[in-house]
Amino acid sequence: MTSVPPHLPSATRVSVCMASYRGASFIAEQIRSILDELGAADELVIYDDASPDDTVDVIKGFNDPRIRLIQGTTNVGYVRAFEAAIGASRGTYIFLSDQDDVWVSGRVGRMLEGLNDSAVVATNFAMLGGGPRPWIPPLTAKMNSRPLANLFGIMVGYRAYYGCGMAFRRDFVPIVTPIPSYVRESHDLWIAICGNLAQSIAHLEVPSLLRRLHEQNETPSGFRSLRRIIAARIMLVRLVLEASRRLRER
Questions:
Q1: Rounded to an integer, what distance in angstroms lies between the CA atom of residue 45 and that of residue 97?
Q2: Which of 15, 124, 139, 243 is exposed most, by the fewest CB atoms within 10 A?
């Protein structure tokens, strides 16, 4: 494992970008499932957001040269942590990963197929240990040709875009980053907005990961207040306008 960018003799194919914080309980299982999917020239870039627990020690315990650990000195929040990991990545294809899920075997290959013709790919997930998914409808292949309907679904709140199930190509990084400064959550919806406005997003129906729900999940599991819902919708409108501007100027 390296803590600073090394000089690689060959091009990096896949960069997995993970934000970690207080992840000591579950991160080892997730890292193992990711490394099983990666080749020798791939990398797992982990930005630790100043974890106060043993998360960093668990990561360092792998001693795998494919792992690149960046240790933040102050807590910046998971959106900025993901942004920092993306900025440090070098792969042709960038995968996002939460610290507490488990990847399904074959995930990388299936998602790379989706990225052959699309700038962004989004997948479904199953629940670790079984059990019902959240109420939001799963993604389907027919959504590939319905970007406007997808955007409407994002605005209303019934499109199942989760960052842990998403990846995008290197040439799309200038559109995705920098993530607008007012985004404190829902970076996944920002990426989905960019992909749909570019009319270049693939939706894979087969789950590519097992999602773990627990009391420390960053994604809210309950209903929000009306005030927060309105604020979130205003933010989404701003994101649509910002993504449209970046795509025009591309």
A1: 10
A2: 124
